[in-house]
Design a protein that fits this description.
With 394 residues, the chain is α/β, with parallel strands linked by helices. The chain has helices at residues 66-78, 107-114, 124-137, 157-160, 166-170, 180-193, 245-254, 259-269, 271-276, 282-287, 291-315, 325-330, 332-340, 351-355, 377-393, and strands at residues 2-9, 14-22, 25-35, 42-47, 52-57, 84-92, 103-104, 143-147, 201-207, 211-217, 220-224, 320-324, 369-372. The structure holds adenosine-5'-diphosphate (ADP). Adenosine-5'-diphosphate is lined by residues 208-210, 237, 281-283, 325-327, 330-331.
């Protein structure tokens, strides 16, 4: 079977999926990952229906870093029979100011993507590592980069800029927005499940361990709660979300913290984890009777509601609101509390549908249709990859 490999490489995990290319479209075959890179490496993979096909642990020294993880995953993938690799699609966090679409990768493109490393130092180098390796090992297999920023590149200039001297914008200090592959997938999905509403004014809330919201008009992103980096906007598992930049100055200038220490704080020790002192996982917070856990949940809900208000203003009202990603897809209590805060916009929850994680969780008379839609960033990458290699071949 002809197949596509989708790769999402991070610092502590390498996720991959294999999609078959069939007449009827793409069919997911394998979902796998190597987690615990450098600590407790573990390669796990399942078939599309959930059957475990590999679960192997490694000594920490055996899979010390991302290149070693790529090698281990590759070694296992090569043992699989029946797949003929047609292309590899990669999740690349930053497409910089230039890329508003996925792109077929060649040496020039790779250089340009590497030049965005400063804009996403924690993610971009990891995202590019498997691309470089595959170029060396399989130079004939086309590779496609799909960006988290691309879907937001059509924002109006007044939404895309900060009130800083113009030179900074020209240097790339812009409000890029992230989670674009998720939002693009949801925009496509809405065209299938709610074709009328899909053209309207919609807020999509991607609430996972990273969290943001996107304002869609006519299926296109017009505003995002994230900006220059994925630190802005909503509070997240370990990131604070919107923060007065004066706090950062205070920590560095008055408290003598190094820039690196502040970076670690903002990326790894803040958010739900920092505020609660209990956990970065919403499930743990909801189950805890620690008042700080309750405070972290209340803060999360409050900030979601405030940001929804901001996006509703950008859209001039909303017709639908979509919950997606880990918390959005699975947590009925969090959805219920957010919807309570959207009552002023005319949103009304159907509690039974909400408890059942139904696809529509609003009442018939709600002025805002409330959807719960699972996201699928990997399928989006596979679609883009197939589309690009097909046009390239034609
Ligand atoms: P990532 O950003 O890592 O892709 P996900 O979208 O998978 O994140 O979301 C992971 C998060 O979703 C977990 O950290 C957890 O807080 C949350 N989550 C998953 N299931 C539930 C649930 N049933 N209730 C509350 N939160 C949940």
């Amino acid at each position: 079977m002809e197949a596509l490999l989708v790769v999402n490489a991070g610092s502590s995990s390498l996720k991959f999926q294999v999609f078959g290319i069939a007449e009827a479209g793409l069919t997911r075959q394998i979902r796998g990952q190597i987690g615990g890179i450098g600590t407790r490496p573990r390669l796990q993979a399942k078939t599309a229906d959930g059957a475990v096909i590999i679960d192997r642990t490694y000594a920490a020294e055996a899979v010390r870093d991302l290149p070693a993880a790529i090698a281990a995953a590759r070694e296992w993938l090569l043992t699989l029979d029946g797949f003929e690799l047609r292309a590899i699609g990669h999740r690349v966090v930053h497409g910089g100011p230039d890329y508003a679409q996925p792109v077929l990768i060649d040496a020039t493109v790779l250089d340009r993507l590497a030049s965005y490393q400063d804009l996403a130092p924690l993610h971009q180098p990891n995202n590019l590592a498997p691309i470089r390796l595959a170029m060396e090992i399989n130079p004939d297999v086309p590779q496609v980069a799909c960006f988290d920023t691309a879907f937001h590149r059509g924002h109006a200039e007044h939404a895309d800029c900060y009130a800083l001297p113009r030179a900074f914008y020209d240097q790339g200090v812009r409000r890029y927005g992230f989670h674009g592959l998720s939002y693009e997938y949801i925009a496509e999905r809405l065209r299938e499940v709610a074709p009328q509403a899909a053209h309207g004014r919609i807020i999509v809330a991607h609430l996972g361990s990273g969290a943001s919201m996107c304002a869609l008009r006519g299926g296109r992103s017009i505003e995002s709660t994230m900006g220059f980096t994925a630190l802005d906007g909503l509070p997240m598992g370990t990131r604070p979300g919107q923060l007065d930049p004066g706090v950062v100055l205070y920590l560095i200038m008055q408290k003598g913290m190094s820039a690196q220490t502040v970076s670690n704080l903002l990326y790894h020790d803040a958010g739900l984890k920092g505020l609660s002192g209990v956990s970065n996982d919403m499930r743990d917070l909801l189950a805890s009777d620690d008042p700080h856990a309750a405070l972290a949940v209340a803060h999360f809900v409050y900030r979601c509601v405030l940001n929804a208000g901001m996006l509703a203003a950008a859209l001039g009202g909303i017709d639908a609101f979509v919950f997606t990603a880990g918390v959005g897809e699975n947590s009925a209590p969090i959805r219920a509390r957010i919807v309570e805060g959207l009552a002023w916009l005319g949103a009304e929850l159907d509690p039974v549908a909400n408890e059942a994680d139904a696809a529509v969780i609003s009442t018939a008379k709600s002025r805002v249709v409330l959807h719960v839609l699972p996201t699928d960033e990997e399928l989006m990458i596979a679609r883009h990859t197939l589309a690009l290699i097909s046009t390239h071949k034609a």
